[in-house]
Design a protein that fits this description.
The mean pLDDT is 93. The protein is globular and about 75 Å long. It is of the alpha/beta class. The longest helix is centred in the last third of the chain and has 33 residues. Strands 1-11-10-9-12-13 form a 6-stranded mixed β-sheet, sandwiched between helices. A hairpin with a 2-residue loop joins β6 and β7. The chain binds beta-D-glucopyranose.
Length: 449
């Protein structure tokens, strides 16, 4: 006898199928993304039109023997951070002091002057607290986690802002010049900027300082990006120059990759964003956006009366109300009735959720996050096969970022997708959480210079 299911249960099932159709990335699609990504990398390296900027970082991986005392300044997320580090050589690092502060809207959406004056004041306080005011010749590594077109290891022009930054008067300017001018204004004369690095480059430096097989770094946090070690002879747009090693780190800026199929929700999110048409991959993968995609999907299902029987639109209709960290909590709830999901929804003032509603929300989160992991694996596979087409040797991938570290199942799903793509050979890819690359790494790079 056929099992009877209720109308509501049927609608839940239909909507789950519906999400799968929209969000599922098959193995064939991952292969296509990976191939297109490699072609975009090659075009970017040749200086041809590409969604990938492929920015030479003017530095190669460290040897592990860099030594000395350095200051690292880290700007790129919610926190502004400064650290004093001592590199001891042989991959050993000592952290001496650290200070951080949350950057409010006033600074991340204000003017260049107010942001850089604030940063210089923050550095001044740190030097005083650490007793470094009279120490001469302090070298600073500056991690700036945005697309910067570098013209040397200690200079770079901001191409455009990403994530939720939109400070006026910085795009098109050299951020090191802006920082040094602000330091001068505050009377700080003993600090010079020795290196300007992207957070991916810092993470690669931190990962490879300890492990020579590390040749790729990935950030999966508020934003997303990757960098890798490339042969100079392949960086066609950068001809005629030599380096000791014949190699250089390239900042891919993979968040801007756009050869990828969008759903109607992605299009809507992009249209309403600060930077429409840009950072397409980032908008499908990173912590800044996953919650909003899930919210748009929920709103659609509410309108189709497939979720909350058509209710709660007033709450969930509000832009950006549903954060990625909620998705994390929801996917973590393995109870049959979605007990913690109910508590979370109540906190958001979402009323009268049934157990089916809650399970449906969980499956929405899973559809959105699983897509993010499969896209991440596909583009990572593109980078790996660009360096080593037959995956013949080991590659350690240094990974940092809250989404990778904290989102339940995220890391495991990326590894599973890499296994689908490469079979047993995926053992040659080792993803290693490399905490704090954006702090330590800038100091290591200042030590190479
Ligand atoms: C920026 C990258 C950065 C990444 C991770 C992106 O929005 O464009 O430069 O590496 O975020 O912080």
């Amino acid at each position: 006898m056929p099992v009877k299911i209720s109308v509501h249960e049927r609608s839940v099932r239909e909507s789950v199928l519906y999400q799968d159709k929209n969000f599922y990335i098959s193995l064939a699609q991952m292969r296509r993304i990976s191939r297109d990504f490699r072609s975009e990398m090659a075009r970017g390296l040749a200086g041809d039109k590409s969604s990938l900027k492929m920015i030479p970082a003017y530095v190669d991986k460290p040897s592990g023997n860099e030594a000395g005392r350095f200051i690292a300044l880290d700007l790129g997320g919610t926190n502004l951070r400064i650290l004093q580090l001592e590199l001891k050589g042989k991959g050993r690092i000592l952290k001496h002091g650290e200070k951080k502060v949350v950057l409010g809207e006033k600074y991340i959406k204000g003017t260049a002057q107010s942001l850089f004056d604030f940063i210089a004041g923050f550095i001044k306080d740190f030097l005083r607290e650490e007793g470094l005011e009279q120490t001469s010749g302090l070298m600073l590594g500056f991690t700036f986690s945005f697309p910067i077109q570098q013209s040397g290891i200690a200079s770079g022009i901001l191409v455009h802002w990403t994530k939720d930054f939109s400070v006026s008067g910085v795009v098109g300017k050299d951020v090191v010049v802006l920082l040094e001018a602000a330091l001068k204004k505050k009377g700080i004369q003993n600090v010079s900027v020795a290196a300007l690095v992207n957070d991916t480059v810092g993470t690669l430096a931190a990962g490879s300082y300890k492990d020579p097989a590390c040749d790729i770094a990935v950030i999966l946090g508020t934003g997303t990006n990757a960098c890798y070690q490339e042969k100079l002879s392949n960086i066609l747009k950068w001809p005629g120059r030599k380096s000791k090693t014949g190699k250089m780190i390239v900042n891919i800026e993979w968040g801007n990759f756009n050869k990828i199929q969008l759903t109607e929700y992605d299009r809507l999110l992009d249209k309403k964003s600060d930077n429409p048409g840009f950072q397409i991959l980032e908008k499908m993968v990173s912590g800044m956006y996953l919650g909003e995609i899930a919210r748009l999907l929920m709103v659609d299902l509410i309108k189709r009366k497939l979720l909350f029987r058509g209710g709660n639109l007033a709450v969930l209709g509000k832009e950006k109300i549903f954060k990625t960290e909620y998705m994390s909590r929801i996917e973590f709830d393995n109870s049959a009735e979605g007990v913690d999901i109910e508590a979370l929804l109540k906190g958001l003032k979402v009323a009268d959720s049934s157990a089916q509603d809650r399970l449906l929300i969980k499956s929405i989160c899973a559809a959105v996050s699983t897509r993010a992991t499969r896209i991440s694996a596909a583009v990572l596979a593109g980078v790996i096969t660009k360096i080593d087409p037959s995956l013949s040797r080991r590659h350690t991938v240094a990974v940092d970022g809250s989404v990778y570290e904290k989102y339940p199942g995220f890391a495991g799903n990326i590894e599973a997708a890499l296994k689908e793509l490469f079979g047993k050979k995926s053992r040659n890819i080792v993803l290693k959480v490399t905490k704090d690359g954006s702090g330590i790494g800038a100091a290591i790079i200042a030590g190479i210079v």
